[in-house]
Amino acid sequence: MSAVPGLSPSEQLLTGLTRLGQAVRLTAWHNAGPANLTPLQADIVLFLAGDRRPRRQTEIVTALASTPPTVSDAVRALVGKGLAERSRDPADSRAVALTLTDAGQAEADRLAVVPAPLRAALDALDGEGVAAMLRGVATMIEVLQRHQAIPVSRTCVTCRFYRPNAHPDDLDRPHHCMFVDAAFGDGELRIDCPDHQAATPAAG
Ligand code: SF4
Q1: Domain spans of the chain?
Q2: What residue ranges line ligand 1, CB within 6 angstroms?
Q3: Among 38, 164, 189, 197, whose CB has the most other CB atoms within 10 angstroms?
Q4: Ligand 1 center to residue 176 CA distance, Å?
């Protein structure tokens, strides 16, 4: 019996992930909206909304794999549009920290609404499908982070509170989060968790 022709399964998966990435962009996830946001400005708004603590500009540069001048320009624009505000960092009075204004939070809420085509695609997956994809995505993110190929992500698999397979007899919820002291399954793996703390400095 001859092999199925074409790319290998893992290469097919990579092609599929590329298509999905295109779909996320094309369905205007980062749509400009009334504030005429650029994609980077939208990314910064979502980053600041993901953790309401004041964030330094250097954190944004690292998280979004951008450069200080590029982020500086985007932040200046966001402040000018009344979506973000600067303040003294409580942890270091010489540093400047950023937070969203109420208008910025409203923009974040708007950006967080999943466009209808993407919602339909997500709804096509059952719980098992979501869990399998979350497991695969989290694993790939962890490896890519180790190779410094992508910005750090606040995912369970790089978190110091994560205990994988701590409950091997519980097929539905084999993992444990020490932060909330609760068992959970692959379907609840976090890709971006506000309570994440890096397991190692390199893990972000
Ligand atoms: S704190 Fe968040 S990222 Fe860390 S293990 Fe718990 S759920 Fe996962």
Answers
A1: 29-112, 125-203
A2: 156, 159, 161-162, 177, 179, 190, 193, 195-196
A3: 189
A4: 9
Most confident range (mean pLDDT) of 55-64, 121-130, 151-160, 190-199 is 121-130
Res. 201: pLDDT tops 70: no
- Quote the pTM value: 0.74
Q: Which atom of ligand 1 is nearest to the CA of 162?
A: 5
CA 199 to ligand 1 centroid distance, Å: 11
Could you give the count of Cα atoms lying within 13 Å of 35 in the half-sphere of its Cβ? 25
Cα–Cα dist 1/134, whole Å: 34
pLDDT tens profile 79-135: 999 999 998 877 777 778 999 999 999 999 998 888 888 899 999 999 999 999 999
Check if the beta carbon of residue 101 is closer than 8 Å to that of residue 85. yes
> Which tokens in the block code for residue 50?
């993901």
Q: How far is the CA of 26 from the centre of ligand 1 (A)?
A: 31
For residue 150, the CA-to-ligand 1 centroid distance in Å is: 20
Contact criterion met (CB below 8 Å) for 90 and 80 = no
Q: Closest by alpha carbon to 74, among 101, 30, 38?
A: 38
